[in-house]
Specification:
heterodimer; A: 334 residues; mainly alpha; 14 helices; globular; B: alpha/beta; 5-stranded parallel beta sheet; 4-stranded parallel beta sheet; 44% helix
Chain lengths: 334, 353
């Protein structure tokens, strides 16, 4: 089991960073002001700050920071669950085509100039439909062998990637094309209380679902045959894992575009810290992923007056860190 | 070597002789077969003396060609130009001109070569178009025109006219006089404004995400001429910025560029995240007009944009300026099209006719 110190750190780090995120940014707000504004929300008291400061903290930074944590946590736990289920450390959340399908859905919404709320719903629906196609394609004799799943995922992802290129091809270069391109690189810039309300239920439900079955993932990670002989209904379990992961990833893509790297690498960071047992690993990835993406997003919105796409930063900042961990642990963690 | 050049010259002369009587514009035999044009990149480009077939991969410039009276010479255009609702209204043939260039500016080589253009007109922002080397093998001259400032737009009009021919060149000169006149008219008032009298203007450029137009752009130029200051202190067109950066800039006026302007405007006015911004509190959020091309970008209508923006930012100082009248005059004078009141309001609200 996890050491208490590690456990405490994993609880404190994301919350501490969340507070810091509320006073870090392009607009100067002091930590005391943030504390005061937060306090005033619970216990009404005299307002002695400009309205714009309150808008910044409560309407802009808070939803964005919480969304960053949700997406980071969701993508990481999904990645960890998939890597266990497929018994492959190179698997990421987009393996079954959810990212490509949701990305295409978002591009369609941008082409049709839908507002952000509709964009999220369309992207989410496309993501679910994409994985639905993969699952149907992979089903043979009422089972879904890993190889069939992966290959079907490749087919579906390729199909939606091609459609996405088609959408970019016909997009208006003065407005739509930059919007699609930029959106695909991932950004939490559009975060608002409304987008938080869209993303929170699926990510929360999916994560809880994965946490509930996490001990069975240990058995599934031994292989389908072994798991069946131990009395685990593998198809049922796989279905649950795929459903949870898909709901999480589709929700994540629908609110902030395609954020790579997190779902692939954070599970490994988790294994380095708490070991490969999924009972510890899954909760750990939630915390690490939340902290990581929040940290990255703070950089994305603060470092310059123009916003830096997340897709660029997650790898640029993450790769050296991962390389360092890799060298230090010498691959003994898997 | 010398002999070969003679043959080439002879061929051109022969060609000119064949064409000249048809056009009855050039005295046979004595007209030079080619002429040179210096473009924005400083390249000296050799063109046929008479240009009859033009390919225009620069979306905005298609409207310029139309304005200068050379639209019937267009043999290749872009998908984007074909989709401009007002360009289609003013010049329906644009839909049947082959689109050799897609929205991202990539060429379809076979369509382009098949269109047999005498010349290709292209925008130049400091870097050469990536298809220039591909084209080189086919010996089609490419004339580059500046696209990053108001002065650049003027020289784009001049070069476009020069390439198209004498009558277009004449119209270009007339347009440039009008353009200069408008800028002088606005500047007479706005040059005297102190910094505190200049509202801080944010120009958004893209629907769906937050992108704004920063410094060193044509948009920055017309904001300054019209007596404002660009609130966005970044550099370049369509820069993505964070929501709180916009709150930090706290613009006095927001101008919504590119479609669907009206919906984007309402989105801004109703979003709580924008509510702390001065422009939203005073409801100074406006839709940028759009005609043959987007007024705020590299269109011929930038001549009107400076008037529109000046009146928008300083209504009392420009109370004598009747924008509706100016707009109608402009389209009838330069596009030979009489706008109805409904059409005028479609342009001012950036909707399709």
């Amino acid at each position: 089991m996890t050491k208490p110190r590690t456990f405490a750190l994993m609880l404190i780090a994301p919350l501490g960073l969340l507070y810091a995120s509320l006073f870090v940014g392009r607009f100067p707000v002091s930590p005391a002001q943030v504390a005061h504004i937060l306090y005033a929300q619970v216990f009404p008291s005299a307002v002695d700050w400009p309205r714009s400061v309150q808008t910044i903290v409560l309407e802009i930074r808070l939803p964005r920071a919480v969304l960053a944590m949700l997406v980071g946590a969701g993508l990481s736990i999904s990645g960890a669950a998939y890597q266990g289920m497929f018994r492959n450390p190179l698997v990421s959340t987009d393996i079954l085509g959810v990212t490509a399908a949701a990305g295409f859905g978002a591009a369609v919404a941008l082409l049709l100039s839908r507002d952000p709320a509709q964009l999220q719903l369309i992207a989410f629906a496309f993501g679910l439909a994409g994985v639905g196609m993969t699952y149907a394609l992979a089903r043979v004799y009422r089972t879904t062998p890993a190889l069939m799943l992966v290959l079907s995922g490749v087919v579906v992802a390729a199909f939606f990637s091609a459609l996405l290129s088609g959408a970019k091809y016909i997009a208006d270069p003065e407005s739509k094309l930059p919007a699609i391109t930029y959106w695909l690189l991932g950004s939490l810039n559009a975060a608002s209380l409304r987008s938080l309300a869209v993303a929170l239920p699926p990510i929360l439900a999916g994560s809880v679902g994965l946490l509930l079955v996490r001990w069975k993932l240990n058995i599934l990670a031994m292989g389908d045959e072994e798991a069946r002989s131990l009395g685990v209904r593998t198809e049922w379990l796989k279905g649950i894992v795929i459903a949870c992961t898909t709901v999480i990833t589709a929700a994540a893509v629908s609110v902030c575009g395609i954020v790579g790297w997190v779902g692939l690498v954070i599970p490994h960071v988790g294994r380095m810290l708490v070991g490969p047992d999924h009972r510890d690993l899954l909760p750990a990835t939630l915390s690490i992923g939340a902290t990581y993406l929040l940290f990255i997003d703070d950089i994305a919105r603060s470092i310059s007056s123009t916003e830096i796409p997340l897709g660029i930063l997650t790898a640029v900042v993450g790769a050296p860190f991962f390389a360092y961990l890799l060298r230090r642990t010498r691959g003994t963690w898997y | 070597m010398r002999g070969r050049r003679k043959i080439v010259c002879g061929a051109w002369l022969g060609l000119a002789c064949c064409i000249a009587p048809l056009l009855s514009a050039q005295p046979g035999g004595h007209a030079p077969a080619t002429r040179n044009v210096t473009d924005a990149a400083g390249r000296v480009v050799t063109l046929p003396a008479i240009v009859n077939r033009v390919a225009d991969p620069w979306h905005a410039n298609n409207a310029m060609v139309l304005m200068l009276g050379g639209a019937d010479k267009l043999v290749a255009t872009t998908m984007q130009a074909q989709r401009q609702p007002w360009l289609r209204r003013l010049y329906p043939r644009i839909e049947t001109v082959p689109a050799a260039f897609n929205a991202a500016g990539e060429i379809n080589l076979e369509t382009l070569i098949g269109a047999r253009p005498d010349v290709i007109l292209m925008a130049y922002d400091g870097s050469l178009p990536k298809w220039l080397d591909t084209i080189a093998a086919y010996h089609i001259p490419v004339v580059l025109m500046p696209n990053t400032s108001l002065a650049g737009l003027e020289s784009a009009a001049r070069i476009t006219g020069e390439v198209l021919g004498p009558s277009e060149s004449h119209l270009a000169a007339e347009y440039i006089r009008y353009f200069d006149g408008n800028i002088r008219r606005v500047r007479r008032v706005t040059d005297r404004l102190s910094l505190s009298e200049r509202p801080r203007v944010l120009h958004t450029s893209s629907a769906g995400i937050l992108t704004v137009d920063g410094r060193s752009t044509l948009i920055d130029d017309w904001i300054n001429v019209a007596g404002g200051v660009n609130a966005a202190d970044t550099s370049g067109n369509g820069r993505p910025v964070s929501m709180e950066q916009i709150v930090a800039w706290n613009p006095d006026v927001i101008i919504v560029g590119t479609a669907p302007n009206q919906r984007s405007r309402e989105g801004i006015l109703n979003d709580p995240r924008w509510s702390g911004i001065k422009a939203v509190q005073t409801r100074s959020v406006y839709v940028n007009p759009s005609g043959a091309y987007l007024w705020d970008r590299h269109s011929a209508e930038v001549a009107l944009q400076v008037l529109w923006a000046a009146k928008l930012l300083h209504p009392r100082r420009f109370s004598d300026l009747d924008l509706n009248r100016e707009t109608k005059l402009f389209y009838s004078r330069f596009f030979r099209y009489t706008l109805t009141d409904a059409e005028l309001s479609s342009i001012m609200n950036a909707t399709a006719p």
